[in-house]
Design goal:
343 residues, alpha+beta, Fructose-1,6-Bisphosphatase, Chain A, domain 1, D-Maltodextrin-Binding Protein, domain 2, eight-stranded mixed beta sheet, five-stranded mixed beta sheet, binds 2,5-anhydro-1,6-di-O-phosphono-D-mannitol, binds magnesium ion
Length: 343
């Protein structure tokens, strides 16, 4: 049974504080960081809910009721997260999918020991059509323990196994926040009537094998042979009834990984002939998701190595990824080895 639904009535704030209390040397800084981040997510949950209305309510096609220019939702999300996180004194630097360079903490605010990387609104192709989108984040400790200097690019380019926390918010039929501090994965659901995230599932475990694969099959003509033969295999009926697999692909990584965490199976964004490293970004998309998948008992690889062991070389670097149920990912690895290929 992968889902352990909790009967405890507990808010995310309380949960964060309780988890912090488990660390004898905790100063509370990390709890405050997460509290600020959940504020940003609450605001974004509200804004996403109203996103179809902004343009309609605007006096002109680019102005909202407050006389402000209506921004694209992903740019807006980037700004909301920055404004929630820049002044708390917990962070030394940030990086985002929507910002080409590092995001520094303004001079007037003190610097903290943590680093935040994020994708403010994942699933951009789905924003305008009311399909689930999300926010992905990952937190590291800064490399230089001195708190007086700004954070650096190296702080944001730490390998994924050094994450101290990672998670995502999914703005779906409800808003859920899924996160891990390295002690399993917990799921919180937002109750808009009380403005709180409530613990819904504790320590979710991804099934050892699933029956769903998730990939953009429109790219299949460009995949390497191991990926093609693996997907052909998944579609081949088997005597034990485990195959054929069903295909599910939302096109929002947050939603596809969310389903994979609950139902199992495999999510893939492989390399192809026009995208030699796939599409997804290592630092703020693939690493946080790989951390969650591993924390839920699953597996995440690039095709050549464990995702969390990759040493990032650039903020916006892409990497192929295959993640989900252990048996499914290992079956894909078997196809790789049969083909003598590692792509
Ligand atoms: P985005 O960050 O611009 O939204 O791009 C990332 C998204 C992922 O959420 C999703 O898995 C993938 O792009 C879908 O890409 P494609 O449309 O090529 O299948
Ligand atoms: Mg994204």
């Amino acid at each position: 049974m992968p889902l352990v639904k909790t009967s405890r009535l507990i808010t995310i704030e309380r949960h964060i504080v309780e988890q912090g209390a488990m660390h004898p040397d905790a100063t509370g800084e990390f709890s405050r960081l997460l509290r600020d981040l959940t504020l940003a997510i609450r605001i974004l949950a509200r804004d996403v809910r109203r996103s179809g209305l902004n343009d309609i309510l605007g006096l002109t096609d680019s102005t909202n009721v407050h006389g402000e220019r209506v921004k694209r939702l992903d740019i807006h999300a980037n700004e909301v997260i920055f404004r929630a996180m820049d002044h708390g004194g917990h962070l030394c630097v940030m990086a985002s999918e929507e910002s080409e360079d590092l995001i520094h903490i303004p001079d007037e605010y003190s610097k903290g020991k943590y680093v935040l990387v994020f994708d403010p609104l994942d699933g951009s192709s789905n924003i305008d059509v009311n399909v689930s989108i999300g926010t992905i984040f990952s937190i590291y400790k800064r490399l230089d323990p001195s708190l007086t200097t700004p954070g650096t690019e190296a702080d944001c380019l730490q390998p994924g196994f050094k994450q101290v926390a990672a998670g995502y918010a999914m703005y779906g039929s409800s808003t859920q926040l899924v996160y891990s501090t390295g002690r399993g994965v917990d799921v919180f659901t937002f109750d808009p009537t009380i403005g709180e995230f409530l613990l819904t599932f504790e320590n979710i475990r991804i099934p050892k094998r699933g029956r769903i694969y998730s990939v953009n099959s429109g790219n299949s003509h460009k995949w390497a042979e191991p990926v093609r033969s693996y997907v052909r295999h998944l579609l081949q009926p088997s005597d034990d009834g485990l195959r054929p697999y069903s295909l599910r692909y939302v096109g929002t990584m947050v939603a596809d990984i969310h389903r994979t965490l609950h139902y199992g199976g495999i999510f893939m964004y492989p390399a192809d002939t026009t995208a030699p490293n796939g599409k997804l970004r290592l630092v703020y998309e693939v690493n946080p998701m790989a951390f969650l998948v591993e924390q839920a008992g699953g597996k995440a690889i690039t095709g050549t190595q464990r995702v969390l062991d990759v040493q990032p070389e650039a903020l916006h670097q892409r990497v192929p990824c295959f993640m989900g149920s252990v048996d499914d990912v290992e079956e894909y690895e078997h196809f790789l080895s049969m083909n003598g290929s590692t792509t």
